[in-house]
């Protein structure tokens, strides 16, 4: 697929073709502006390619109507560099919010949220506010929120970008554990340390083209 | 649960920016009061037209020196005229009696006038009051006719004034409505901004569009409905204080406004208030939420 943003001199993604199997763990690496984040946006149906198709879970996202987007997003979890937590809600409430706004009852939240907070290693800190948590803990809340609805795919856009190396490793262990539950994990990063430690599939992008696709790769 | 969530969001939203909410409600109330008032006047003028035009008369005054023959001729002609429904003859004595009844408070005036000085007249009811002009053209040169006076011309002036007042009320309603709509748009923008984080998360996790938009739209609708309720209160107060109070002297002139009329106009005010606010909020969200 190809994506050219208006006013851009060259395409952000130029004739890129990637296939990710269910249950895979894939790193997209490359320098800033190489087009990694555009891939995430396409998977989220936030931008559409000018040419080619994006297929997620067997559904052609390219031709999907925008009113179907909310339902589509429920099968995808998202984690970002800047956590994107609600500052006036506790860890528990942040995760429960994600469930309640897609129509789950409070009873479901009461059952599921403590479970997933336990899974990400925040047992006992449910009622802390984001500002009372460390960066790593905040990112765990974000992961819990992304995972609470048991999505098929977890998209992580530089999830360790704001964290120190040790904390980053912990977050990666967490994503690895989530991947083992059968969830496909797609992670965009330029943290070479992490890529080298994980030894997972690496897709390297440069100037909108794939320059490397390696099964158990390292960072260049 | 979701209904409860949406409703609590609406209240929180109205309270978050309470001064703006009050401004929005007040302008909405004034606008809807004007709308209601002009609606009531519309009915009022219709009622009055029915009432007055039914009783409207054309008077043909006869000259002082009219002869017996001329009077009988005219009477026969009028009786057989297809435009004329009824003809009454008013003699000098009858005219004097009416004159006395009309000015009971001015005995000096009544004393100064002799029955002789008052003209005799034919009072006509027309099948269609608007055909006055034909009557006028037909009879103005008939022997013995002094003057033809049509009450409907006077009434037209009165109704022109009432229609003008009604138009002014309607114009004021529209101007206030524009102010109210701008306030709604502004309130929604502020609300969307202060909830931008929540909205971003909701979009991310796949909350449906109506669920994201409903609290904002309902916030505007609730303000519109409160505004229309205040408008209703204002109209009720106006009926009490003006029509039943200081203007009650004009009771015979103006047809009364019933409680039924006011209750009838309220759904219109509430509907207009609610729908227009909802539409404005929804359109504003198109620009500021992009869901």
TrEMBL record, chain A:
Keywords (alphabetical) are: ATP-binding, Cell cycle, Cell division, Cell membrane, Membrane, Nucleotide-binding
Cellular component terms, GO, for this chain's entry? Answer: plasma membrane
Q: Which domain of life is it from?
A: Bacteria
What molecular function does GO assign, one term? transmembrane transporter activity
Where does the record place it? Cell membrane
Indicate the quaternary assembly: Homodimer. Forms a membrane-associated complex with FtsX.
- Indicate the family of this protein: Belongs to the ABC transporter superfamily.
Which protein, by its recorded name, is this? Cell division ATP-binding protein FtsE
Organism from which the protein derives: Micromonospora jinlongensis
From TrEMBL, chain B:
Localization of this protein: Cell membrane
- Report which superkingdom the organism of origin falls in: Bacteria
- Provide the ABC3 transporter permease C-terminal domain boundaries: 172-286
Residue ranges of domain FtsX extracellular in the record: 56-148
Question: Which Pfam families does UniProt cross-reference here?
Answer: FtsX (PF02687), FtsX_ECD (PF18075)
TM spans (from-to): 21-42, 168-193, 214-242, 262-285
* InterPro entries membership: ABC3_permease_C (IPR003838), FtsX (IPR004513), FtsX_actino (IPR047929), FtsX_ECD (IPR040690)
Q: Which UniProt keywords apply?
A: Cell cycle, Cell division, Cell membrane, Membrane, Transmembrane, Transmembrane helix
What topology does it adopt in the membrane? Multi-pass membrane protein
- Family note: Belongs to the ABC-4 integral membrane protein family. FtsX subfamily.
- Record's function text: Part of the ABC transporter FtsEX involved in cellular division.
Q: How does it assemble?
A: Forms a membrane-associated complex with FtsE.
What PANTHER family does the database record attribute to this sequence?
A: CELL DIVISION PROTEIN FTSX
Q: What is this protein called?
A: Cell division protein FtsX
